[in-house]
Write a structure and sequence with these properties.
Blueprint: E1 4-12, E2 20-21, E3 37-40, E4 45-48, E5 51-54, E6 62-65, E7 77-85, E8 96-101, H1 109-112, E9 125-130, E10 135-139, E11 145-149, E12 159-164
Antiparallel strand pairs: 1-2, 1-5, 1-7, 3-6, 4-5, 7-12, 8-9, 9-10, 10-11
């Protein structure tokens, strides 16, 4: 099993200076992710050594940023996530870590923060890397829908940075 360690930085161009950056390096080791975040399931996450670590082994454990929310009319969202594998036990394609974008657009922020572990209407896009080192985009509105999936990966990957930003059309 791999443990994903996630550092989250977001910003919206319309609200310059309204970004978010984690401060886990200032927190003591504990099960609390921080004042701006909601962890699904709380028991599956902990701050350890200045990083947020997922300790659960069920699929789609999420951390939601509660203090920021953007929509199409609010500028461009830029997200940068540093993901590190604590160890590699060969779980392969079944393990994954990444960014959940657009979850619960019709819900208020409290209800949207409860989205995890399953697919369904309004569940968002999961942009990530799997255990074989393949980058993908998964549409969580459908059970097994992948609009993009890399053909090759790096099975022994240890750390990566995922970056998402809109591409001008």
């Amino acid at each position: 099993m791999a443990v994903a360690v996630i550092l989250l930085f977001t910003s919206c161009t319309r609200f310059s200076g309204n970004g978010y950056s984690s401060a886990w390096e200032k927190y003591p080791d504990s099960r609390w992710a921080g004042p701006d975040l909601w962890a699904n399931r709380l028991a599956d996450w902990e701050v350890r050594g200045g990083r947020l670590v997922c300790t659960g082994n069920e699929p789609l454990r999420t951390i939601h940023l509660l203090t920021r929310r953007t929509g199409p009319e609010e500028g461009n969202l830029m997200t940068l996530v540093n993901i590190r594998r604590e160890y590699n036990d060969g779980a392969g394609k079944e393990e994954a870590a990444g960014i959940l974008l657009g979850a619960g657009p019709a819900l208020n922020y409290r209800a949207a923060s409860l989205i995890f572990h399953s697919w369904g209407e309004g569940a968002g896009l999961f942009v990530g890397i799997d255990g074989e080192g393949k980058v993908f985009i998964r549409d969580l509105e459908k059970e097994k829908e992948y609009p993009a999936y890399a053909v090759k990966g790096a099975r022994e990957w240890r750390e990566t940075i995922l970056f998402s930003t809109p591409i001008p059309v």
